[in-house]
């Protein structure tokens, strides 16, 4: 769970998850171009690749090869563990 | 100085010619025997005297690792301009062309990336009508 919180503690990585939750299954090239063109981020491809590595090791992103290309998918399961541990509930007034 | 010719490496020149002419819709410009291979170029029918695309044999040993790494990350090797990307995407998909990136709005343009079946990814771009652009032309 520590990995998940660390992975989420970064605006670029949160934007990557935002974009993957809008359209799942993107190549590194697509993620880079969307971050640059839609969000005005001027990061190197290597930097974005490293961010994806952090998300992947936290289990928030999974990759799959289709043909000769590698696609990145958002995996929300680690987030479910968080809400499972601290479920939302209505506050009971004393 | 002008850009008269650029190239993509192709695994099989005849299969590439078929894809680039019959599927994409380019026109064959030159087809000259050259040892075991051919000097094989295509042009856009919209611009017969425009830049030629050389379909170059991919038999040099450096080509495979270079292209494999680019294709893995989804990086296209060439970009072709279209007037209506949604229509081209539908037309090519119906012909069995596989896209690694569906049409994506990137602000000033819509882009998509497909596999040319010869070893490369190719980007299509539809630039949005823009007053500044029109002035620049």
Under CATH, the topology of chain A can be stated as: Arc Repressor Mutant, subunit A
Output mean pLDDT of chain B: 94
For the sheet with most strands of chain A, the description reads: 2 strands, antiparallel
When the domains of chain B are counted, the total is 1
CATH architecture descriptor of chain A: Orthogonal Bundle
* Topology order of chain B in helix (H) and strand (E) letters: EHEEEHEHEEEH
Q: State the low-pLDDT regions of chain A, or none.
A: none
The helix fraction of chain B, in percent, is: 25-40%
Give the number of DSSP strands of chain B: 8
What is the fold-level CATH name, i.e. the topology of chain B?
2,3-Dihydroxybiphenyl 1,2-Dioxygenase, domain 1
Shape of chain A: elongated
Please give the alpha-carbon distance between the first and last residues of chain A.
32 Å
What's the assembly state of these chains? heterodimer
| Range of strand content of chain B | 35-45%
Helix count, DSSP H or I runs of 4 or more residues of chain B? 4
Rg of chain A: 15 Å
Spatial arrangement of strands, main beta sheet of chain B: 1-4-3-2
């Amino acid at each position: 769970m520590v990995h998940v919180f660390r992975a989420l503690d970064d605006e670029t990585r949160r934007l990557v998850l935002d974009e993957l939750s809008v359209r799942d299954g993107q190549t590194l090239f697509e993620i880079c171009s969307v971050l640059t063109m839609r969000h005005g981020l001027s990061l190197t491809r290597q930097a974005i690749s490293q961010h994806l590595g952090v998300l992947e090791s936290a289990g928030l992103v999974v990759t799959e090869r289709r043909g000769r290309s590698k696609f990145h998918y958002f995996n929300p399961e680690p987030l479910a563990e968080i809400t499972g541990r601290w479920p939302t509930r209505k506050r009971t007034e004393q | 100085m002008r850009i008269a010719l650029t190239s993509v490496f192709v695994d099989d020149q005849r299969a590439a010619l078929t894809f680039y002419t019959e599927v994409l819709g380019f026109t064959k410009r030159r087809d000259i025997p050259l040892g075991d291979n051919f000097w094989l170029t295509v042009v856009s029918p919209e611009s017969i005297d425009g830049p030629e695309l050389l379909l170059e044999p991919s038999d040099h040993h450096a080509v495979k690792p270079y292209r494999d790494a680019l294709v893995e990350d989804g990086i296209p090797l060439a970009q072709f301009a279209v007037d209506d990307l949604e229509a081209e995407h539908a037309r090519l998909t119906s012909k069995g062309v596989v896209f690694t990136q569906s049409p994506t709005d990137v602000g000033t343009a819509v882009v998509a990336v497909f596999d040319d079946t010869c070893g490369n990814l190719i980007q299509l771009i539809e630039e949005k009508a823009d007053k500044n652009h029109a002035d620049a032309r």
